[in-house]
Amino acid sequence: MCALLLLAASACSSGPTLDEAARVMAEDGAVLSRLAFIGAPVVADKSAGKDNDPTGCSEGSARRSFRITGRFNESDVLTPREKPESVAFALASQLRVLGYENDAPLSADDAPDHTVHVLRKKDPGITFRVVTQAVEPGIEVFGQTDCLP
């Protein structure tokens, strides 16, 4: 009985699996894709098991990805110059609500023609990159799991 409990406890502490992280990533990405300020969203959900990407991962592990592209909806409130920064901020804020934290410092000098936010959810190991710019498609959100078994 003790051996069984020890085995069960060690299985719980082994960390997230690729399937678990991909499921959370797809759920979080779906939340973002439904936000009203993304016009005509196109979702490329590669979180299903058949889309494992082992590139750069150790043997026995892989990554999965999730991508949303879209355009800015018409707005009487925001100017075309204000839209990229405002929408990027709103998307990043929604990711924070979902448990993500800033993963990379941002600098306007690094990206003068677009706005970039990189946010990470440490458990189960997901990073989302939000890029907005004045040129089409305007909005790009890319999620990727860590290399996981």
Explained architecture:
With 149 residues, the chain is of the alpha+beta class. 28% of the residues lie in helices and 28% in strands. The protein has a six-stranded antiparallel β-sheet with strand order 1-2-6-5-4-3, covered by helices on one side. Strand 4 and strand 5 form a beta hairpin. The protein starts with a helix and ends with a strand. The N terminus is likely disordered.
Question: What is the radius of gyration?
Answer: 18 Å
Order of helices and strands: HHEEHEEEE
- Fraction of residues in H or I helices: 25-40%
Quick one: how many beta strands?
6
Structural class: alpha+beta
Overall 3D geometry? elongated
- The residue ranges in which pLDDT falls below 50 over 5 or more consecutive positions are 1-11
List keywords for this structure.
single chain; alpha+beta; 6-stranded antiparallel β-sheet; 3 helices; 28% strand; elongated; disordered N terminus
Compact overview of the structure:
This protein is an alpha+beta fold.
Topology:
Layout: H1 2-12, H2 18-33, E1 38-46, E2 65-72, H3 83-97, E3 101-102, E4 114-121, E5 126-133, E6 139-145
Antiparallel strand pairs: 1-2, 2-6, 3-4, 4-5, 5-6
